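Key idea: predict the complex, not the pieces.
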Amino acid sequence: MVEVLQLQKVARRFGGLQAVQNLSLSIGGGEILGLIGPNGAGKTTLVNVITGVHRASSGRVIFEGRDITRLAPYQTARIGIARTFQIVQPFPDLTVLDNVAAAALFSQKGLNPAQAREIAAAQLAFVGLDKQMNQYAYSLTLAMRKRLELAKAVAMKPRLLFLDEVNAGLNSAEVEHAMVLIRELAARGITIVLIEHLMQVVMNVCSRVVVLQNGALIADGSPQQVVNDPLVVAAYLGQKYAQLGKQKNTGPTDAVEA
Ligand SMILES: Nc1ncnc2c1ncn2[C@@H]1O[C@H](COP(=O)(O)OP(=O)(O)OP(=O)(O)O)[C@@H](O)[C@H]1O
Ligand SMILES: [Mg+2]
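Result:
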């Protein structure tokens, strides 16, 4: 397996808080890697460090053999790394099409607006938002905004894609649809890191799972290994499954969200 991303003792502090601590991890091409852990574990911070939103306090980030530790977000986008945002932030006064076209322009040098819109239209069809193409982004429902977020990331033509809670707030049918899209992206050869609180999604689509707690890696293995790891149960899953027992009336995907 070809190594796509390597983290070497990556750390990020915010004042006195160690949000990510000495994290070393290697991600292979074609993996769908689940990145899970309790709220505040450092999952989003790690994505921010890799994509250049936050500087690493120490350590190195290597993408396809190249040191990208000090690159800015537009630079990591141009070399093939894309991410969705946990809190979706479309340009509300641009159309859905132009939101995606803007992402294509941000990530690919030398595109003209017509070419960017062509890429955007194709990705909107992929996520099933083509009918909303000419609406303003502010008019979209949450589920549609999540799909827009995915279309924006895919329009950046990534080889490595971080999906930060793309299923949060969606109903079961919407989650099922998102899982199909994620598998299709992986089948195209895109390496995916899936940050996800819905364990049903993690168990269904991930080939490997890593668990963060207090900024440190506490487990790394197959989905089955990880859910049976006593450390993971104590740090994260015990609490979730306890909640599941109390929420008998909710649907299967809603019930396991943290
Ligand atoms: N810009 C920031 N400034 C200061 N502290 C921050 C900043 N971003 C994150 N943190 C802190 O770093 C820690 C890790 O946060 P992070 O958002 O990475 O967690 P997470 O694992 O993504 O959690 P969640 O599952 O709730 O999304 C938290 O304690 C958070 O308050
Ligand atoms: Mg987060």
